[in-house]
Design a protein that fits this description.
single chain; mainly beta; globular
């Protein structure tokens, strides 16, 4: 949950160039993604700015989840990233207003 001085964590997937953009809590990041049939997804070349902050552990967990996930479920506004059939690594909810 984002407080008044904390921006929300997000990812944005852009079709053009298969670009990943996002904000991990303190640092912006980018990379690329690939989607294949059967709900398969992969993220590569994830790089971010390197500002130190109190959310570095959470940021690293997000980067790890993006690198490890290999499939997704898209339900309405929800995107759930998974590794195999294990518990979800990350959940996102679409915000089309931005």
């Amino acid at each position: 949950s984002a407080g008044p001085d904390k921006k929300e964590v997000y990812i944005r997937l852009k079709k053009e160039g298969n670009l990943l953009q996002g904000f991990a809590g303190c640092n912006g990041f980018g990379g690329q993604y690939a989607i294949e049939d059967g709900g398969k997804i992969s993220f590569t070349n994830i790089m971010g700015t390197m500002m130190a902050c109190d959310r570095t552990k959470d940021e690293n967990k997000l980067y790890e989840a993006l690198r490890e996930c290999n499939n997704y479920i898209h339900l309405g506004k929800k995107l759930i990233l998974n590794k195999g059939k294990k518990a979800p690594l990350a959940r996102f909810e679409a915000d089309y207003a931005k």
